[in-house]
Description:
The protein has 566 residues and is of the alpha+beta class. Among the domains are: 2-192, Transferase(Phosphotransferase) domain 1 (Transferase(Phosphotransferase), domain 1, Orthogonal Bundle); 474-561, Myosin VI head, motor domain, U50 subdomain (Four Helix Bundle (Hemerythrin (Met), subunit A)), CATH 1.20.120.720. The chain contains 20 helices and 17 strands. It has helices at 2-6, 57-61, 74-88, 98-107, 121-130, 141-144, 148-151, 158-173, 215-227, 253-258, 271-285, 301-315, 321-328, 330-338, 391-402, 429-449, 453-469, 491-501, 505-513, 530-561; strands spanning 9-10, 19-21, 27-29, 36-37, 185-187, 190-192, 200-201, 232-235, 238-241, 339-340, 348-349, 352-359, 365-373, 474-478, 484-488, 514-519, 522-527. A 3-stranded antiparallel β-sheet has the order 5-6-7, with no helix packed on it. Strands 1-4 form a two-stranded antiparallel sheet. It has a two-stranded antiparallel ribbon with strand order 2-3. It is elongated and about 120 Å long. Pfam families: Myosin_head, Pkinase. Its main location: other. It comes from Portunus trituberculatus.
Amino acid sequence: xxYLHQNHVMxxxxxxxxxxxxxxxNIKLVDFGVSSHLASSWGRRNTSVGTPYWMAPEVIACEQxxxxxxxxxxxAWSLGIxxxxxxxxxxxxSDIHPMRALFQIPRNPPPTLDRPVExxxxxxxxxxxxxxxxxxxxxxxxxxxxxxxxKAVPHNPEEVRxxxxxxxxxxxxxxxxxxxxxxxxxxxxxxxxDRRTKRTPLWMDDLACLERLTEEVIVDHMERRYQTxxxxxxxxxxxxxxxxxxxxxxxGDKESRQYRGMVKSExxxxxxxxxxxxxxxxxxxxxxxxxxxxxxxxxGKTESANFLLKQLxxxxxxxxxxxxxxxxxxxxxxxxxxxxxxxINDNSSRFGKYLDLTYTRLGKVTGAxxxxxxxxxxxxxxxxxxxxxxxxxxxxxxxxEAEDKLMQYCLDKSKRDKHRYLAGSNWSKSKSQANVExxxxxxxxxxxxxxxxxxxxxxxxxxxxxINLGDVDFYQTIDKDNMEQAAVKxxxxxxxxxELLGIDPSDLTEALTSNxxxxxxxxxxxxxxxxxxMCTRDAMAKAMYGRLFDWIVNNINRLLSFCRxx
Length: 566
């Protein structure tokens, strides 16, 4: 380094990978691909180049601050990082993405050894001298030669060299020589793994940091991030999520811990970061927080809500673990009863949902309350081509069949694709198995929340009644006054629905084929036409499902509210 700097050369990429040891243990510094020849020893440069983990803060700053510059002391920083690399085996921040390291190096305090006590005070101090963040105060290479750690090296290091030769030979015999992959470097605002690959541009985590905020630039930026599986991007306080339509494996316990109590800039954008931000704002500001999830169908709102709830419950660890499990069962049940397959989304939410989570002043979750809006009840009786009814109908049918309980609820395996309200469902063996698994999850969720067996039996009976009600047909007759009148064609179907609902068949028939109005205190009853009877049948099915949905929501709120401490 001293020799290079005396000859006006700034290396800019000092790292373990560029230090070679010959068979005679002579040390060579190689790879001058990003080095610069200066006009003088104190010449400056303003190009942001190097290998991210070893780059000095001032070199990184030049990427954004175009009027900024640095001198040869950037090599001293890289030397300090290399010293840590040689001691610990990896440079600091090596466990995160190179681009993330570029954001953290200028913001974090100078790194140190993982276990400083295992090394001499001189070595620790040498590293600290190299890693002074203000490069104007950082020592030069010549000044570092006077450090006690360097002065302790024998003037004629032949003994050290012999030891290195013996060590090399021993490792070579045991075939234990370590081959490391080349590190990613940065040049011109782009990442590059090696000379043969194309440079990968750096894509900002926050769109608010872009120099040009045009629609074209934003869309291109989002697309580039999406192509590298970076589906989350900040826009100030807003998090944009692009549905990857595949499993990314970024929602496990490791990621959950990674985002707890961290500043937003310390990690890549993530839904867990939004949860953590809202949670800590609630604790510190003592104010209620609200997160709005918005997007078109298929954008991933349902999954985002699930991940958000999971992290918020994890952050507010309840004294009673059972409560956490109960709260996490809410979304799967709501999805089963409120979601359906549409033309563009296999799990489209057909209702609006507002979920309240309550916490103690110390941040422990104590309960939840859910409110629902605008359930698409028309889907119960009519679905567009290629779409399906609410998931729960298919889950229950296949789930009860697997338990050999279909007949108990007046359903027939051979007629499952002939029901009017379930037409066009495209049943298959694989789908049936998946439905059975989902049904078991829903039942488990109900029981975890505290629903009784008789309540679940009532739910199944109402759902089965809705399915069977849709199969009631009518024909036209003439009454005694020579007026058109609807009559039930398949009376046995009326008996089935009545049995499931526990009502008198004649009352159900009357409700479907006639209607009554009160005028001036007098009840006037008139007969329905076939068309009116069909509309009444469908309206009854929609009302039954809507009331069932509301009852489930109210019961969930009741079961989760007893332990709420506000």
